[in-house]
Amino acid sequence: PPRRILLLGEGNFSFAAALCESAPAARFVATCYESEEEVSGRPLAARNIRRLRERGAEVLFSVDCTKLKDYFLPSDRVFSCVYFNFPHCGRKAGVVKNRELLAQFFTSCAEVLAEKGEVHVALCSGQGGTPADRPRREWHNSWQIVAVAAGARFILSDVHPFNAASIHGYKCTGYRSQDKSFSVEGALNHVFTRSTPLLYLKPMVCQMELGSRRVSFQVPQMLVDKINRGFLELNSEHPVRTVKEKLTAVLSQTFPIQSIDCSLSLLHQGHIGGVCHANVFWIIPKPEQDASTEQMANGLANAVLFSHIDFCKDADENGCMKVQEGNLISEQYFLRPSLLLCVQTLIERATFLPETLHVLCGPVFRKCPISPHSLPVFHEVVFVAAIDKGMESSFMQMLVDTIRNGIYLLHQTVSGCKLNVTLQEATSFERTELNGFATSESHITKIQHSIYVETDVSGSCEKGWCVGSVGTACGGGKSSGLVIVFASLNLDLLAMLICGIADWRMLWTSDERFLSQFLGGELRLFKSFSLYPPSYVHDVSFWVPEREQFDEVAFHTIARQVSRETVVSIQLIDSFQHSETARKSLCYRLTYQSCDKSLSCQEAAEMQLLFRKEIQRCLHVILR
């Protein structure tokens, strides 16, 4: 069917006439706010109305842009595109009234726009309040168009100059509600599209086989939408899988390669040596008899997922351990923080071959502070080989060089920009954080070096992004007497660097406009479909409980869950200790911003209120 295009707020209909002539296949409905009698008395407007009607366009008068559905039958309320050029309340209306007009317009527009339709709003220079404006006004003095549109579930997907000179016959009019022109130099056309809704995740319980037992456990709330996305499956076109496949292909030119299936359990039991336990998602299993019988298959490593609300009371919804003093837990379960936990299982397999590079990949989970490059869940690939003693250093160097060349090749193919891959000795923090993934004291991995990637836009720290590590592990089974060499890479960070994706959350978006840019498994530079998303700042201050150490990682984890991953920054802005009582007070600043969905001011405020309640409940702080 032909596209239906709605034009609002036409003054002399010159824009509508020009657009109608340039797109003869489309069906146009051109409207204005004034009555037919007022408009018909203007010669230019009368001529343009005749031009429109001669081409089959419909012309309507006295149309209020805030009540659009009232002017069309239900069957006619689907427009592919809506244009509103230079909206204004009239006369000397200030920015607040014009924001209110835009807010009501977007709400009304949502009722008549097609699901994949566009809303075009042209504003004079500086009015929009986005970085595209030159010059850019102070935020409080702008129309804040992106934040206003977010209230009606729209995101800004494109912005470009409004070139009046290129529109044949166009003449702007309406200066202070008069038949006078105004300056459109530097004007911008803002293109809005519908946003996918913020996710309201239902509680979930997972059942999986662990040894000879079937274990039921609560999935940490912030991981419910990430536990089974299938990014690495054979039919996936996700850039994370493409990076893994192309990097493995490069390595196969130098080493014999054997890919390992990803059937290893997400859940582990036992001891983790050398890892900060506050950064692990701990799991307390439910008694088997309490598990729901209403199950549904999901293909997750012999697991089934189902909705269930009667959760285990010994671990909270964030995977934080709740252990009362004197209460010893004999069974410690956790979601795997690294595939290095699986190295020992791998080398004990009968299929494990010395001097062959074995490839293992899958999702891993770690609680971490909030930042654009700190990922609570990501896809890890581990390359493992058994080497004769004395040869490990040269083999490790050859492995790193091949990985470096692979990253160079992928990045150059996509962007052509320069980047630098370096191998640096692991810092004490990295050794403490990552070393010692083991299920027993006799089988332990030792990270020796970290792999850093520097680009012109990395900006994370002076030495770039840490995308992986290399090291050794003790051999076992057929590999006794050999040295196990491994390289671990964060596929998500590599995909971000190679494709120019600024925020890790975009990798997990459900919006089809992300994956549509990587059809056929091709790596390309990513173009964001949500430009200049609005951000909202909220502060919270509280007294820390006496005789308790404040858990900042848990603080960040609660923020992730409550905000549905819309908190992008948490900063400690003040710390105070009372001189008499020695009580300690902390003040944090939270910044809310979504990279792929609309987020309104009201939604952010509601999240902040819930966050205050949750930290009071879970961390026992006293709000100020």
From TrEMBL:
SUPFAM superfamilies, A to Z: Anticodon-binding domain of PheRS
Reactions it catalyzes: tRNA(Phe) + L-phenylalanine + ATP = L-phenylalanyl-tRNA(Phe) + AMP + diphosphate + H(+)
UniProt name for this protein: phenylalanine--tRNA ligase
One Pfam family from the record: BMT5-like
Taxonomic superkingdom: Eukaryota
Claim: Zinc is one of the keywords in the record: no
UniProt keyword list: Aminoacyl-tRNA synthetase, ATP-binding, Ligase, Mitochondrion, Nucleotide-binding, Protein biosynthesis, Transit peptide
Protein's UniProt keywords contain Protein biosynthesis: yes
GO aspect biological process, one term: translation
EC class (word): ligase
Family named by the database record: Belongs to the class-II aminoacyl-tRNA synthetase family.
EC number: 6.1.1.20
Gene: Fdxacb1
Compartments, as annotated in UniProt: Mitochondrion matrix
